[in-house]
Amino acid sequence: MSAKKLNNVFTQALDELRKKGTAKGKEMVITGVKPAEGANGPRYFIEGRENKEFLKMNANAYLGLSFRRDVIQAEEDAVKKFGAGPGAVRFINGTYKPHIELEEKLAKFHNKEAAMIFSSAYSAMMGIFAPLISKESIAISDELNHNCIINALRLSRPKVKEIYKHLDMKDLEEKIRNNIGQGKRVVIVTDGIFSMRGDYAPLDKISELAKKYDAEFEEGITLIVDDSHGVGAFGKTGRGTEEYTNADGVDVLIGTLGKALGVNGGYVASTATIIKYLRETAPTYIYSNPITPSEASAAVKALEILDSKKGLELLEWLHKLTKRFEKGLVDLGYEIIESDHPVVPLMVRDTNKTTELVKYLTDKGILATGLNFPVVPKGDEEIRFQISAAHTESDIDYVLNVLKEYKQTH
Question: Quick check: helix, strand or coil at residue 36?
Fold first, then answer.
């Protein structure tokens, strides 16, 4: 069968994406990494520009743990012992001891009864949401939730779907009240940290609303939080938005091993009953291979580091660098959305200027992410910087100096 007709259809679709400005385009390929040296943090080499060193200011690796020798050693030891891959899904002899150890440590870290790991946090959300939604469920979601939540909602097909205004607790409460008598179960779902902006959900207030109206619904109100950008980067001990807001009532927590923990994979932590139920019903868990035993071992080591004195030191350093960068931007006259989270949005509010500034930064050896309409609302165009504990004060100051030069010349 010829794909000629489909090729024509998809060529037109790709042209439309380019016209809209939403096409991702050719991927930048990293060909090597230069370890931290002297006053500089790690530098990266890019295919086609191998003679130039780049400073990464757009990575999710908030603690820089992927470069630690003990994390690498844990992965190397496990791959020698268990091989390069699991070879099967979990229930067909694809479960290895490091998987179980990691799940136990994650549950303990989050003070939950149990946890289960997935190949990614995205697949975790896509896998668990439908089993937690019945035909008599009402799903209520923040309007700026991540794409994985949006798609999980589409697949789960709740009886009622409500979207509340971003971080607007009055609107959330109104949505809950308006649905009393409309269904048996309410599921509130939100990001912990909203990765485009670095702001966070007031989980304490959301939990209070859930408790306030829980008795109004036969099967109660369940709060699901995807805190992939929060865990390991937010809160006094890195336990994320739940810790930062002193929330009491997050029923199901989704996290990632691929951001602050520096490895790969995702997970869910909840009650023992909910986790047992999800192992039997979540399709992306049942029908997909887990992360490798070696990745699980590396994640165990990374979690041990986070949950230690060294972890507290890394979090303190991360916070210090974040505030240094934020203050520097404000002093230069740039607009930011201030937060204790290491996502620092520089608000440009113009598509052409955002594109121009990203190119200027790249030419100066700085990798940063420009977010333009329609990825963000028109007028909210920004450059998203992400601070890492692997950065140095010299790295931060270099970026600020480049931004100062740009402001003086443009």
Answer: coil
**By the 8 A CB rule, do 284 and 119 touch?**
yes
pLDDT confidence band for 363 (50 / 70 / 90): very high
Residue type, 80: K
Q: Can you state the percent helix, strand and coil of the chain, rounding each to 5?
A: 45, 20, 35
Distance CA 385, CA 261 (A): 19
CA distance 56 to 395: 10
Closest CA to 262 of 400, 66, 101, 125: 66
Q: Residues 188, 280, 261, 244: is their CA dihedral positive or negative?
A: positive
Looking at the domain assignment, is residue 7 inside a domain?
Answer: no
Which H/E stretch holds residue 79? helix 69-82
Q: Which residues pair with 142 in a beta bridge?
A: 164
Q: Are residues 107 and 187 in the same domain?
A: yes
What confidence tens digit (pLDDT) does each residue in 313-353 have? 999 999 999 999 999 999 999 999 999 999 999 999 998 89
The span from the CA of 152 to the CA of 124, in Å, is 10
User: Alpha helix locations (H) across 182-240?
Assistant: 203-213
Catalytically annotated residues? 195, 229, 259
Single residue among 255, 283, 306 that ends a domain in this structure: 306
Cα distance between residue 329 and residue 194, in whole Å? 21
Over the range 339-349, which residues count as b (16 or more CB within 10 Å of their CB) and which as e?
A: bebbbbbbbbe
Instruction: Report the chain's mean pLDDT, rounded to a whole number.
Output: 95
Looking at the fold, whether 200 and 177 belong to one and the same domain comes out as yes
Domain that holds residue 153: 69-306
- Residue whose token pair is 């003990």: 70
Q: How far is CA 156 from CA 3, 130, 138, 178, in A?
A: 32, 4, 11, 21
Among the three residues 306, 324, 356, which one is the final residue of a domain in this structure? Answer: 306
